[in-house]
Amino acid sequence: MTLGALLPTVNAALNATSAALLFLGWRAIRAGRRDLHRALMLSACGSSVLFLAGYFTRIALTGTHRYPGSGAAKAVYLAVLLSHTLLAAATLPLALRTLYLSLGQRFAEHRRVARWAFPVWIYVSVTGVVVYVMLYRL
């Protein structure tokens, strides 16, 4: 199997990992476990950075791919893809700002930004997996 053929599956796994780490990090901070929260969120950042590297590599190797279906399934796919793409563009600056504030120990500001960053980031991670399944597995 070529790298270009393997990367979509690897990227979906990285997206799923990011989503799981984000959820676990959210649970950790809700339980008052700051150190665990920090470790999980930094791991989610790492997983997302690896995803981005893999995604851009896959695009460079194989280009973009069209959805092979039609009708209602294609409409659903395009709606999910559009929302995923638009929110993915917002995720990077939101995640970076949240990370910056936390590393600077500006926790009140960090919480305000994280209230927006978390749901957007987790949505993008989950819909990334949905896009993969719809494009490569259905």
Automatic annotation (TrEMBL):
Transmembrane segments: 6-26, 38-56, 76-96, 116-135
Keywords, in A-Z order: Membrane, Transmembrane, Transmembrane helix
Coiled coil segments of this chain: none
InterPro entries for the chain: DUF420
Keyword Cytoplasm set for record: no
Origin: domain of life: Bacteria
Protein name (Swiss-Prot/TrEMBL): DUF420 domain-containing protein
